[in-house]
């Protein structure tokens, strides 16, 4: 029986990650994949990398996982850089851009933000033309069979759209959810030779996570608190 949990955008929130991992375990699901942004914003990036490294069969890199590897003169970014070990950096540098899985004859593609870049943000209200580019191949994929189903993260907002060419699905975010404040993930259930997609919301102890953040002197704590308690995005226009 094929059941795969798809998680994304942990952002160093280990309290939320543990709650989601418990939920996945209780459902008897053994396969887990992760769509990147393991670190940044929340206080426990290195600890989250350890969990993801051990529990996930495939992980792609997100925008935070990429730019944290560059040198920075920004104090905020530097704080997160200082939390990571050499092994953590090596792990992040080893992550692939994307992967495909074939389930019941359908190609399911997984990447962080778009088929072209970890930094290209595609939102559910963008033009249809732009959303349909999510099914296209790119220099990262080469000329392979195009996907029937696409899973991505990045925008911290869960949704599913159906088109003639396929299904576009965003898992939402485990650690920094910006639609509802509960942790978000998806399940692909390939039982009975069909593919069923489910969305799961997990309540977790946000006050405990904020306590850890204060204990560790997390930079821009108030912005993190507003994201966790009110789903208020720090860079909202
Ligand atoms: Mn993210």
Oligomeric nature of the chains: single chain
Give me the count of strands. Answer: 10
Helix percent band: 25-40%
In order across it, which strands form the biggest sheet?
3-2-1-9-10
**What would the principal axes of the Cα set say about the shape?**
globular
| Radius of gyration, in angstroms, nearest whole number | 17 Å
Q: Major beta sheet, specifics?
A: 5 strands, mixed
What is the rounded distance between the termini? 44 Å
Topology of this structure?
Layout lengths: L2 E5 L6 H13 L4 E4 L10 H11 L2 E2 L3 H5 L7 H8 L3 H9 L3 E6 L2 E6 L16 H5 L16 E4 L5 E6 L2 E6 L11 E7 L6 E7 L3 H10 L5 H10 L7
Parallel strand pairs: 1-2, 2-3, 5-6, 6-8
Antiparallel strand pairs: 1-9, 4-5, 7-8, 9-10
Helix pairs in contact: 7-8
Bound molecules: manganese (II) ion (MN).
The site of manganese (II) ion has 5 residues, from loops.
Explain how this protein is built:
- It is built from eight helices and ten strands.
- By secondary structure, it is of the alpha/beta class.
- The chain has a five-stranded mixed sheet with strand order 3-2-1-9-10.
- Strand 9 and strand 10 form a beta hairpin.
- The mean pLDDT is about 95.
Keywords:
globular; alpha/beta; 237 residues; 5-stranded mixed beta sheet; binds manganese (II) ion
Task: Summarize the model shown.
The chain is 30% helix and 22% strand. It is of the alpha/beta class and 237 residues long. The mean pLDDT is 97.
């Amino acid at each position: 029986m094929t059941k795969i949990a798809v998680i994304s955008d942990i952002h160093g929130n280990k309290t939320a990650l543990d709650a989601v991992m418990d939920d996945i375990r209780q459902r008897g699901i053994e396969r887990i994949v992760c769509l990147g942004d393991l670190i940044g914003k929340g206080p426990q990036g290195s600890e989250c990398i350890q969990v993801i490294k051990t529990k996930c069969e495939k992980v792609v890199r997100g925008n935070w996982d990429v730019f944290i590897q560059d040198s920075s003169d920004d104090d905020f970014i530097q704080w997160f850089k200082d939390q990571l070990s050499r092994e953590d950096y090596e792990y992040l540098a080893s992550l692939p851009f994307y992967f495909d899985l074939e389930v019941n004859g359908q190609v399911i593609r997984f990447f962080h933000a778009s088929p072209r870049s970890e930094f290209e943000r595609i939102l559910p209200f963008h033009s249809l033309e732009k959303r349909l580019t999510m099914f296209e191949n790119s220099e990262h994929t080469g000329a392979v069979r195009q996907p029937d189903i696409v899973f991505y993260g990045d925008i911290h907002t869960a949704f599913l759209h159906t088109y003639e060419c396929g299904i576009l699905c965003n898992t939402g975010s485990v650690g920094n959810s910006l639609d509802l404040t509960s942790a978000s993930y998806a399940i692909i259930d390939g039982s009975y030779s069909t593919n069923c997609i489910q969305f799961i919301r997990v309540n977790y102890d946000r006050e405990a996570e904020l306590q850890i953040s204060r204990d560790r002197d997390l930079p821009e704590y108030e912005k993190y608190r507003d994201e966790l308690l009110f789903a208020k995005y720090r860079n909202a226009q």
